Amino acid sequence: MTKQILKKYFPMIRTKQEVLTEISQKPALEALYKSWDSDQQKEFLDFCTGVKGCKLLYDPFFKQVMNPDIHPERLEKFLSLLLKKNVKILQVLPNESRMAAEDTLLAMDIVVKLEDGSIANVEMQKIGYAFPGQRSSCYSADLLLRQYQRVKTDKKSQEIQFSYRYIKDVYTIILFENSPIECRDIPDKYIHYGKTKFDTGLSIHMPQEYVYVPLDIFREILHNRGIQSELDAWLTFLCEDAPEMIELLIRQYPHFRELYHDVYKLCGNMEDIMGYFSEALREMDRNTVQYMIEEQQAQIEEQKGQIEEQKGQIEEQKGQIEEHKAQIEEYKGQIEEQQEQLKEKDSRIEALERKLAAMAG
């Protein structure tokens, strides 16, 4: 039934048997297919045959469908809605980030220069990594420094004196498939805008801006209230693979049919689609390993903190015990003193009793 939903919109979708037959006829493809585990094989067959939609959050697929060199209007529309201003892409910038060279998790997905001179980095993340604030700050700082160096070089070549007024805004946009815990603490919001502001109301423009989009939270909200805006439609396109939701999206916003058509057209070239999928799996494996390392490091740091806290509590308890011991010793002294006083009183009473007995005799 689900296959029929998408098949009526995209007749090029093939059957499972047709896909497996083509794979089996080419030894290299068959070897690649067998290298995947059963869940990965099922995922691949599901989107190739229309059982599910293709996950656009996989980096290779996202770049193929949203490639600003080929279809700039698509990314322009999405960014215009997300940034709440009219966006025109002037140039696609190379991924020359020094941060990416040091850390595979800092590889930037798409970096574009906009018509007003500002720069937008669109980052796709399937896992909500630890320390998202620190990471995105590093992304932004690296982009800002690259812009500074590029502008300074350009102005020098034009024999124009450099000025910081030439530095434009830098937007760091991160789309999370599985959001970090900080986002999950706010379950009713799926877009977070951030920038530096002064608590006194001081009006100084700071060029670094951030947009976090936790798509897992968006999906939960989407299933409760449906698609309510064109921005919702774009986010649905990026994160939803249920055929029923894809059909709903196409009915409400027919222009998305062309984008899905490009996705299923990709599936017609088995070498390419398997290559993209394999690349996505490799990237996912690398990121998962790094994520697990960071999680373990975070747990170790947390445990260290707990141990230090427990040590402090133990030392405090030791101090309390010593204090209690001192109090006990003090009480013992008081008791012994009282006992001596009682003995002295007993001796006086006995003396008085002897006197009374003598007087009575």
Features:
361 residues; alpha/beta; six-stranded mixed β-sheet; 14 helices; 10% strand
Q: Rg, please?
A: 35 Å
Number of strands: 6
Mean pLDDT figure: 85
Terminal residue distance: 123 Å
Shape: elongated
Q: Outline the biggest β-sheet.
A: 6 strands, mixed
Listing every helix as H and every strand as E from the N terminus to the C terminus, the arrangement reads: HHHHHHEHEEHEHEEHHHHH
For the biggest β-sheet, the strand order reads 1-2-3-4-6-5
**Total helical elements:** 14
Can you describe this structure?
- The chain has 361 residues and is an alpha/beta fold.
- Helix content is 62%, strand content 10%.
- It is built from 14 helices and 6 strands.
- A 6-stranded mixed sheet has the order 1-2-3-4-6-5.
- Strand 2 (110-114) and strand 3 (119-125) form a beta hairpin.
- Helix 10 (215-225) packs across helix 11.
What's the SSE blueprint?
Blueprint (H helix, E strand, L loop, with lengths): L1 H6 L8 H9 L2 H9 L2 H11 L10 H8 L5 H12 L5 E5 L4 H5 L7 E5 L4 E7 L6 H26 L12 E7 L4 H4 L7 E4 L12 E7 H11 L4 H10 L3 H10 L3 H11 L3 H91 L1
Parallel strand pairs: 3-4, 4-6
Antiparallel strand pairs: 1-2, 2-3, 5-6
Helix pairs in contact: 10-11
Give a quick precis of the structure.
By secondary structure, the protein is α/β, with parallel strands linked by helices. It has helices at 2-7, 16-24, 27-35, 38-48, 59-66, 72-83, 98-102, 132-157, 181-184, 215-225, 230-239, 243-252, 256-266, 270-360; strands at 89-93, 110-114, 119-125, 170-176, 192-195, 208-214.
